[in-house]
């Protein structure tokens, strides 16, 4: 790891070289820190100069990242723990029973009821519950997100091609050149107002394939407080996870 002094701060960064790269790119990541992607033969002294020139931008990004909430701790999937769904935290109740031969999940009377078969070995219990909970989230995400897409499609006068809900590591949603919309199933943990913002964001890309002023004007015409919702997602997004 390299470092430079910038004012009263010290900026540490990792250099990633590539023979295919012709320009310098800097990323400030909440987990990996400052990453500087450079052409293979660029001298370290020149890289340090570039980092120093971008020092104000880097330190501002680092300041903003300090506001970001940490991801949740891994779940044991035991009674008393809580899971998020549409912005609320619901307590888990795990019941071992001989009435089922597979893990079952349901949100019943304000609790996640998880039925676990007696035959399930303890060593496999956590992963089996986790996999079933994720399947439950995905099914509910598909239904909710498709319903919201249908609702906002008419408001924006657009027509998506396909709607996919799947695992996405770094994106909440995306819109392909073919008009296919992809959504991260984890957004179903967020409040419905955030789900709506993400849905409208991707639908707006069917009209504007960029983040131009026209794009944001269209989003704002549908969701007047989109900036607040976007900020909520920036600060709380890492908590929308199931480990």
Total helical elements: 6
Number of strands: 11
Distance between the termini: 29 Å
| Rounded Rg | 22 Å
Give the full name of the CATH homologous superfamily of the largest domain: Metalloproteases ("zincins"), catalytic domain
Poorly predicted runs of 5 or more residues: none
N-to-C order of helices and strands: EEEEHHEEEEHEEEHHH
Mean pLDDT: 94
Based on secondary structure, the structural category is alpha/beta
Largest sheet, strands/sense/barrel: 4 strands, mixed
CATH third-level topology of the largest domain: Zincin-like
Query: How much beta, percentage-wise?
Result: 25-35%
Tell me the helix content: 25-40%
CATH class of the largest domain: Alpha Beta
Shape: globular
Spatially, the strands of the biggest sheet line up as 1-2-4-3
User: What is the CATH-assigned architecture of the largest domain?
Assistant: 2-Layer Sandwich
Number of domains: 3
Set down the secondary structure blueprint:
Blueprint: E1 2-6, E2 9-18, E3 25-29, E4 33-39, H1 44-53, H2 55-66, E5 82-85, E6 88-97, E7 104-108, E8 111-117, H3 122-156, E9 163-166, E10 173-175, E11 181-184, H4 192-204, H5 213-222, H6 226-236
Helix pairs in contact: 3-4, 4-5
Organism: Orenia metallireducens
InterPro entries: UTP_pyrophosphatase-like, YgjP-like_metallopeptidase
Protein name: YgjP-like metallopeptidase domain-containing protein
Task: Name the features.
globular; Zincin-like; four-stranded mixed beta sheet; 243 residues
């Amino acid at each position: 790891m390299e470092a430079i002094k910038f004012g009263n701060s010290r900026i540490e960064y990792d250099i990633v070289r590539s023979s295919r790269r012709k320009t310098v790119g800097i990323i400030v990541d909440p987990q990996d820190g400052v990453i500087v992607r450079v052409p293979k033969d660029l001298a370290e002294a020149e890289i340090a100069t570039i980092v120093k020139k971008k020092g104000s931008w880097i330190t501002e990004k680092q300041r903003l990242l300090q506001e970001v909430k940490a991801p949740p701790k891994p779940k044991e999937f035991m009674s008393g723990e809580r899971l998020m769904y549409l912005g609320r935290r619901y307590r888990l109740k795990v019941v071992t029973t001989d009435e089922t031969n597979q893990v079952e999940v349901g949100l019943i009377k304000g609790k996640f009821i998880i039925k676990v078969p007696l035959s399930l070995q303890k060593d496999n219990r956590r992963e089996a519950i986790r996999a079933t909970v994720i399947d439950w989230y995905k099914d509910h995400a598909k239904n909710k997100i498709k319903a919201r897409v249908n609702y906002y499609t008419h408001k924006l006068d657009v027509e998506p091609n396909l709607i996919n809900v799947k695992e996405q590591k770094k994106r909440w949603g995306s819109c392909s050149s073919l008009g296919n919309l992809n959504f991260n199933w984890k957004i179903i943990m967020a409040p419905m107002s955030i789900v709506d913002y993400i849905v409208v964001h991707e639908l707006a890309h069917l009209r504007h394939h960029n983040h131009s002023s026209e794009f944001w004007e269209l989003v704002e015409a549908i969701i007047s407080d989109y900036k607040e919702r976007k900020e909520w997602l920036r600060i709380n997004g890492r908590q929308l996870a199931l480990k």
